[in-house]
Amino acid sequence: MEPSRPTTMCGINGILHLQSQKKVSLSCVTKMRDALEHRGPDDKGVFIENNLGLGHRRLSILDLSAAAKQPFVSQNQRYIMVYNGEIYNFKDFYPELKNKGFVLKTSSDTEVLLLLYQLYGLEMLPRLNGMFAFAIWDTEQKKLVLARDRMGVKPLYYSFYNQTLYFASEQKALFAAGVPLKIAQDSLEEYVFNRFVAGENTLYQNVKKVLPGHHIHIYPNQKVVVQKWWDLKHEIQNQATIQNPVDWFTSTLDASVKLRMVSDAPVGVLLSGGLDSSSILASLKAQNFKNISTFNIGFKEKQHNESHLAKMLSDQLEYPFETIQLEDYQLYEQLLNATYFQDEPIMHLNEPHLLTIAQKAKSKVKVLLSGEGADELMGGYVRYKPLQYPSLLGIIAKMGSFGLFAQKARYEKLIRYAQIPTHAGLVLYNGCNIYPPDIAKQFGLLRAPQNQYRNHIYQEAKEVYPNNLRRQALYFDQHTYLNSLLDRNDRTTMGAGIECREPFLDQRLITGLGSLDDQWFFRGKKGKYILKTAMQERLPSEILNFKKIGLSAPWGDYLIKSAVFKQELSSFAASELFEMPYFNHLDGRKLVRNFQKGDPRMAAYILPLFMMHIWLKTYPTKF
Q: Helix, strand, or coil here: 499?
């Protein structure tokens, strides 16, 4: 195991008045900072210099000393940094920094990161293996830099408001500073059609994300320059040929897992019982890591439950196992909590469950490993399958128009999907539960959103994988759907004061997998062929061959059978949501009646609106 060092998991925030003569208010910076207390309950810091203020909340995992306290000042006193994340390979730079004459004053990756910036500026970014979001203030040039990791594991939001730049790890800190909480109309449309807002936009007016793999410079003359520092398209196209894919994959995954175990704090695994998280645990066992706790969320409904597999594997590998179920009033309370932490209506519908298991894990560990990213990198979703033969979808659509198979639930969604007329639409809406024809029919909304960012990524996907809709969908998901999953992971685990790491999202795996042939993903019935092949000697057949469930929750049952949710469903029928301009032609009571009649298709229509109702009812009242 590596020796100890301080962590930098935290919440960061800052204010930059673009009118340099205007001084930053200490109370405003601290108000923003303390809105993020859940991200860093162990320590806090502030730096203010005239028109610039930086705030930091720290989650201390290893070193509780003040040596690596943030905001962090460079050795030459020129740069001030607030930083959220982990640079896993920071010790690789020790010899180089010592050869440059630096004497390290801490054992932190924070100091290494700022020294690298002092030496090389942002040219150092491609050398980092980690997850990060940081802000650096140049006291000489009066310039601010914001930067974010390759895949957007760590969040960073910003807003220009009243001649001032506000930025923070979560939107709630911006609202705490006085940025207006207003829904953006275009974003609301995208939420309805696409489940979440992709790209730099958010659900809110005048609140944006720093895009993954990008950095932003804000200069004294108020000039703002946004640049892309990591380009997945370029990386895939320039990846050297991998001669032995299974050997390469196994060794690279093991190296990634080992790198993410750089910690003396107790580490656990979010273990669903599925292939992805089980592979992480199997890699730990193969590398002889000890004292790894596993944590699982279970369901009483058999069709949603993988707990038995997770327990079987934990017992087999001799790791401690804990599971928990979440139902009724506790689920309702956690839904409200998760909505607050998420800052937007929850989308994946398992946010309350992840928050609960992270809170349970908190008593044992401060670090959790997750299997996130494997499906989007290796084709693990069944929804990719129809894209293999898109010409057949036209035939399926015609069969559906005659009512064939419409009563069989697993075909009903396919029939609706098959009605999308273009290849672009098939990729753009592949991750959705309802599609533009459904929305036109059920809601009377005929105009799909512009989706400029989504269309841009689709064009890139076509350039990387021409005439290959399945690979285009993977590339598209890696820039959209996966970002929403990572945001969910960050919000639910940091909401519990837990650091979450994703070994599948090592850049070596991302680019290498992107360069492999289709046979390594889509061979066989279940996808992720290369992962299954690599794990054949490590995992039991029960896990290798188990039908994928994922962390899905039976919300349709909750809303109809649970007393607290039945009551909330009645409230939803008369929600002020239906007074908003975009929804005021919908009949909430009719939607609920149709849902209560038992039509299984209605859950896909009701749930996004129901979660929007929960958000509208609870979240804005916090500010």
A: strand
